[in-house]
Amino acid sequence: MTVGIEYYVLLSAALFCIGLFGVLTRRNALMFLMSVEIMLNAANINLIAFAFYHGNLSGQVFALFTMALAAAEVAVGLGIILVLYRNFRDVDVTVPSAMRW
Amino acid sequence: MVGAFEFAPAIALLPLAAFVVALVFGNGMPKKGAYAGILATAGSLLLSLWMLATVAGGEVYNEPLYDWAIGDEITFHFGILIDPLSALMLVIVSLVALLVHIFSLGYMNAEGETGLPRYYAELGLFTFSMLAFVLADNLLMAFMFFELVGLCSYLLIGFWFRTRSAPSAAKKAFLVTRFGDYFFLIGVVAIGATFGTLTFAGDASFVNEAQSAIDAGETFHGFGAETWVTILGLLVLGGVIGKSAQFPLHTWLPDAMEGPTTVSALIHAATMVAAGVYLVARMFGFYALSPTALAIIAFVGGFTALFAATMGVVKDDIKQVLAYSTISQYGYMMLGLGVGGYVAGVFHLMNHAFFKALLFLGAGAVIILMHHEQDMWKMGGLKDKAPVTYYTFLAGALALAGIVPFSGFWSKDEILYDAIILGLEEPIFLVAYSMGLLAVFFTGFYTFRMVFLTFHGKPRSEAARDPHPVGMNVKIPLIVLGVLALLAGVVNLAPVGKIAGMDIMFLEYWLDGQYTEGMTGLTYSEYSDTAGLDTTYIAGSQTITLLIAGALALGLALAGAIVAHVLYNVPEPVPHTENLGAAREVLRSNYYQDEVQVWIAQGLAMPTARMADRFDQSVIDGVVNGVSSVSLFGSGGMKRLQTGVVTNYAALIVLGFIALVVGLGVYGGWFV
Amino acid sequence: MNEWIAIGALALVGLLIPLGMMAVSYLLRPSVPETSKRATYESGEIPTGGTRIRFNIQYYMVALLFLVFDIETVLLFPWAVIYRPALESGEVTLLEVLGPMLVFVAILLVGLAWAWRNGAVQWATSPRQVEPEADRP
Amino acid sequence: MAVLEMPELTALAPPMILALTALVLFTYDSINPRSTNRPVIAGVAAVGSLASLAVAVWFILAGVGTPVAEGGNGVFDLFEGQLIVDQMALFFMIIVGVVTALVSIASYDYLRDHAYQAEYYSLVLLAATGMSTMAASNSLVTIFISLELASLPSFALVAILKSNRGSVEAGLKYFLIGALSSAIFVYGISLVYGATGHMQLDAIADNLGAAEEMNGLLGIGVLMLIGGFAYKTASVPFHFWAPEAYEGAPAPIAAFLSSASKAAGFVIAFRVFTTAFPLDVMQTLGIDWSLVFIVLAIVTMTVGNFAAATQNNVKRMLAYSSVGHAGYALIGLAGLTVDGGELVLGAAMMHLLVYGFMNTGAFLFVALAEYWGVGRTFEDYNGLSKQAPIACVALAVFMFSLAGIPPFGGFWSKYFLFTGALEAASANPWLLAVAAALVINSALSLYYYSRLVKAVWIEDPVLERESLSQPTGLYAAIVVAAVMTVLILPGFGPVADAAIGAAGAIIP
Fold first, then answer.
1. What's the pLDDT score for residue B539?
2. B583 falls in which pLDDT band (50, 70, 90)?
3. Would residue D477 count as lying in a domain?
4. Which residues cross the membrane (chain A) (predicted)?
5. What is the pLDDT of residue B594?
6. Does the first or last residue of chain D, that is N or C, have fewer Cβ atoms within 10 Å of its Cβ?
7. Do A101 and B651 touch (CB under 8 A)?
8. Out of A61, A65, A78, whose CB is closest to C60?
9. Nearest to A59 among D169, D172, D193 (CB)
10. Cα separations (Å) of B12 from B42, B263, B278, B486?
11. How far apart are CA D398 and CA D357, in angstroms?
12. Cβ of A93 and B644 within 8 Å?
């Protein structure tokens, strides 16, 4: 017995929206980053579900790549958040707003 | 073998070189560049004479030299056309230019003027432009050099730019002629657009195209071919009227006296003013296609001749008198051309070039004598103190007045003769003729009034009692021109020839291409055939007509001279202008010509311009400024989107993305 | 649907057992509020400072390195899965199968060497010795 | 998974040279940590990028990427179509190579007294590797990986001035928007994969018929892909990072990002939309993406140019102008029609090439100004021509070329874009609006570009300043960029031919 593909899509869409909600509301840079990770993982759910649905492996392999790149992104992101903290003594993403208009 | 014509471009290029040399090295050269100009114009003269001889030997030259814009429909090029007319004109122009250069040594250098390199450079450029204009083989090239001539006259009239009057006179000359040139330019474009060619001569000339269009009965823009040709011809005529100072665009010429007298000589005799009439002669074949255009030319010419002559009567400034005489004489030429007297018009152009250059240079000499005094009422009695100046000036005056046997008589007589024989066939031309005839009287009067006031009687000022001596470089040009003024008439002694049955009408044969083998299209006889003007003689006899016409003209001229003699050849002449009564003020004020033009400018043009300006200021600028302020305001709004807070960016990105999804989704029907 | 019932029952039981134990404990225990009970427990020592202390930067560095290299190993799995079958099929040579992964690992090694040489894995004895390092302009 | 194909792999030499150079620099830095031996480090980077450029130019001249039928060496198809080396790939590898070389040379002076020398150059080269690979990517997998390879070093580069608050702020914003965008992009990929079952672009195109009942899913996926491209190319609405990132980043990095990164973003967009989503099929599915690009092109150029018009900070003005130019290049996609469009697509490619020179040059001039320390606003630039006439002539060339004034290269590419849009307007009248927006925005852009030229050449300096030094590397890069901006005029025939040929090759 298999679960219909549409449920997976709904699950991933829900996850994506949760992540997006976090991106839009969280002011802490780390939470922002985590929200983005949630969005990426929503995509991963889709990929794996569709790989199963279509019966080919490219989706699953691509999910591996996505995870690796997400990790790399987090690495770079943490570095940037670190210097953000050093310069602004805060990890609030709305604080650095000197450059505008 | 290199033919003479290979050197044709050099005729024009030599003065151009002189221009460059005088401009660049003038300050370091002896006589500030005068010698460069003299050498160049002398070279041009020699080459021109060679051309003349070659043309006389039976060759014509019509070659495009350089294509500078090649289109599908039409090709613009520079080229050279040397036929009897242009060869003759080349000689006249280069000769007068040479003499003016020589005279300038005495007039400008000896008087210690400043800015001489500029003067000689501009003279060189002026000569170059005119020679290139004469050489032009197509209308566009002619137009370009026509404009260059105008520019040079502007520069030279305004030579003494530190005075108040010279720059304004220069501007006036420039603007008034430019007004005419505006029509000329439209004419050039229209001719090019209509016929697809702008060349004067050859099988593919616009003259031939127009001819065949008329023959084929084509229509252009709803006009018949002949009407269209008339319109085109009149458009070009606009430029001619401006340049040749014909009514109503003549007002700039008297003011042009503000330039050095040598420049006046050049402008009046050989370059600027002559350019207009030369252009009519150059495209006479085109005008010959349209009797209407010819009639208008004749009337403009006749009227201008009379009109200007009457104004010349009351002038006090020697150069002013000469200026009005120039206008009047060019009126004669236009009259001559307008009545189909191509030879007569060109003949008068040639004679006038000589005697008017002579008169102006003579006037220049007088001005030197008088320590730069130009008012004739302060002169007098110069006859004995400056005999060379006097006798040469007198020769010029006799030629101008048209007294036999001086050159002016023969050409003016021929013009009037051509006018009367046409007028007898078509009485309307008698009006033009009578205006021309009447002008003869006034010409005789003002010419001798000028001579008597200047040279006869007692000196009326300190300067006149103790004149400044003049040198050889002044006298030589005067003598050369004096001889020419006396003798130039022999090239076409038409009345004598016709009465006596002798073949001595050399100029007519010359212009008819009889010395030139295989020349077609540009000849007098072909023009006459094209124009197809019928003529009638008085009592059916050519001889009687000739004699009556000649006698009338000579008689009126002598009458004018005699009146002048009676009134002014007295030791203490007085201005008899009061006797004119109310007419005096009208004449003095040049028939209020300037006032009318000023009124046109201020009363009509200024309000129009002001309205346009208001429109420009309010509507156009308003729109433009509005656009720019809206842009800048929009710019302010655009950049406010960039709040600097990254969360807002994320929100805006999501919103924008949702807008795209909804938009494309609705459009593409995903939700159905 | 049957399997789902079993899973559901298991989840239910799994939730009920801890909740039940906590509920029983809540009912049975005595309630004696005292401030020392709410203090941070530091192995019997008297606590110094709050619980929210700043960790040494080095933890982040090691964590980052671990994260990256750990995830890279994920990429080795697909390769490992096909390695033997590919060799046994005989269509490809050893170099062709092994080469790409060796290149991949070599690139990672370059990165690791760089991180090592730049002091990422050098454990500092005190934060004050590390700070000037990290604050290099 | 991957089968090694040695001879074909050499077709990927341009990105591989870049990657190798980056590794060499890492190795050098590992052996010799914190080296500040600038000549060696910058030299290696410059040589590497120039070598990559040279190889790409050689390839395109030798006919690599031209189909055998047309007398070339054939299109190289690697790893079962995951990567492809055709004319367009080489064309964009050239753009990336040019910009990387210019930036490497210019950074030699810019980075004096700066730590992280080797890291800086190796990050630049890694990003360039990513961009160069993007040009050759022919599958959503490779596109995403190379895009991230280009992005991640860029984040670090923007924030590399660790104690400069502007740089950090710029890096943070760039990173956060980048992370969000790549999440959206990956999700888009997953949806497209879901709808078609494939990642390889040609396979996607073959399986579009199967996506009929999932056209909504596919449509959202396509729009998410557009979002990813828009982020990379700094197009509306994903452009918000650009002004800040360019303003805060070190000027050579701003040059690098705004020229090379933008071009790389466009090449994947070109390839995905011409190969994977043929317009005729997509229109029957109700996903007319050319409309989206029409809207984006108009909005992007308008937003960019209008926002640039009233800036006081030169670098920020250039940043917004860069957004505006993304709008111009988007015309290349907006002007695609069912039965053609290689002219307009080729014009967009030409524009990106010319832009690679003129925009890089303009940002490098800003780098020069930062090197001198004269300040950031227009007023601070007043009268610079007296101290540095050569650089200011070059600046005038860049500005007028950016504004699209003849006879500079920028005029020609914009002119081709305009005629291409008009040509396509016969099939899609909306392109008339695009063409009109192009003209209006170009006119507006002249205002602020000439303002900078006026400041430099006409205005008198506000403060007296001492004579300015002439850093060799920066000057060389600026002069080369200016010369190329001018020289591209006589060379425009071949460039146009190459671009239109490359565009024609990928249009089905």
1. 63
2. low
3. yes
4. 6-24, 31-55, 61-85
5. 67
6. C
7. no
8. A78
9. D193
10. 12, 19, 17, 29
11. 8
12. no
Query: Quick check: is D303 in a domain?
Result: yes
Of A23, A96, A101, the CB nearest to B639: A101
Distance (Å) from the alpha carbon of D111 to chain A's nearest alpha carbon: 20
- Three-class secondary structure of residue B530 per DSSP: helix
B73-82, B519-528, D480-489: least confidently modelled range:
B519-528
B562 and B465 within one domain: yes
Domain boundary (B546, B562, B581) is at B581
Can you give the pLDDT at residue B672? Answer: 62
Residue B87 token pair: 């060869």
Q: Are residues B349 and B396 in the same domain?
A: yes
Is C137–D115 a contact, with Cβ atoms under 8 angstroms apart?
yes
Instruction: Report d(CA D236, CA B649) in Å as an integer.
Output: 11
Summarize pLDDT for A46-92 with one digit per residue, the tens.
999 999 888 888 898 899 889 888 888 988 898 898 888 888 888 88
Both tokens of residue B562?
């005699």
Distance from B651 to chain A by nearest Cα, in Å?
6
Give the count of domains, chain D.
1
Residues 107-126 of C with CB under 8 A from D: 107, 110-111, 113-114, 116-119
Asked if the structure places residue A95 within a domain, the reply is no
| Res C129 pLDDT > 60 | no
* Residue D4 confidence (pLDDT): 40
Q: Note whether residue A3 is domain-resident.
A: no
The tally of domains found in chain A comes to 1
Taking each helix axis as running N to C, give the angle between helix D389-403 and helix D430-457, from 0 to 180 degrees, rounded to the nearest 10: 160
> Is A15 in the D-facing interface, judged by CB distances under 8 Å?
no
Domain that holds residue B524: 294-581
Give yes or no: residues B498 and B476 share one domain.
Answer: yes
Nearest-CA residue of chain A relative to B646? A94
Span B217-240, pLDDT tens digits: 777 777 777 888 888 888 888 888
Q: Determine, for residues D295 and B639 on separate chains, whether the beta-carbon distance falls below 8 Å.
A: no
Q: How many domains does chain C have?
A: 1
Q: Based on the fold, state whether residues B524 and B658 are members of the same structural domain.
A: no
B301: closest CA among B323, B277, B285, B279? Answer: B277
- Chain A residues with CB under 8 Å of a chain C CB are 1, 61, 64-65, 67-68, 71-72, 74-75, 78-79, 82, 86
Rounded distance between C-alpha atoms, residue D65 and residue D77, angstroms? 10
Of D152, D179, D186, the CB nearest to A33: D179
Residues 80-109 of C with CB under 8 A from D: 82, 92, 95-96, 99-100, 107
Calpha distance D290→D428 (Å, rounded): 10
Note whether residue B200 is domain-resident.
Answer: no
Whether residue B391 lies inside any domain: the answer is yes
Q: Which domain does D352 fall in, by range?
A: 288-508
Verify that B491 and B351 share a domain, yes or no: yes
Q: What is the mean pLDDT of residues B498-516?
A: 72
Does residue C6 form part of some domain?
no
Quote the ipTM score.
Answer: 0.87
Contact A100 B647 (CB under 8 A): no
Tens digit of each residue's pLDDT (9 = 90 or more) over C103-119: 888 888 888 888 888 77
pLDDT of the residue at B80: 83
Residue B538: which pLDDT band, with cuts at 50, 70 and 90? low
First to last CA, chain D: 29
Same domain, B412 and B543: yes
In this prediction, residue D63 has a pLDDT band, given cuts at 50, 70 and 90, of: confident
Chain B positions touching A97 (Cβ under 8 A) are 643-646
Structure letter (DSSP) for residue D137: B
Tell me what pLDDT residue B581 has.
Answer: 63
The minimum CA-CA distance between A99 and chain B, rounded to whole Å, is 6
Task: Tell me the average pLDDT across B128-148.
Answer: 86
Q: CB distance from D156 to chain A under 8 Å?
A: yes
Please give the average per-residue pLDDT across D236-255, as a whole number: 91
Residues in contact with B94: Cβ distance below 8 Å, sequence separation at least 6, in sequence order:
B11, B41, B44, B45, B47, B48, B127, B131
Q: Is the pLDDT assigned to residue C59 strictly greater than 80?
A: no
Q: Chain B interface, mutation test: which of A23, A27, A81, A99, most B Cβ atoms within 10 Å?
A: A23
Contacts of C67 in chain A (CB under 8 A): 71, 74-75
Give the mean model confidence (pLDDT) for residues D318-337: 90
Is pTM beyond 0.90? Reply is: no
Regarding whether B613 and B465 lie in a shared domain, the answer is no
Q: How far is it, in rounded angstroms, from Cα B94 to Cα B132?
A: 11
Paired tokens of B249: 């665009």
Instruction: Give the pLDDT of residue D20.
Output: 93
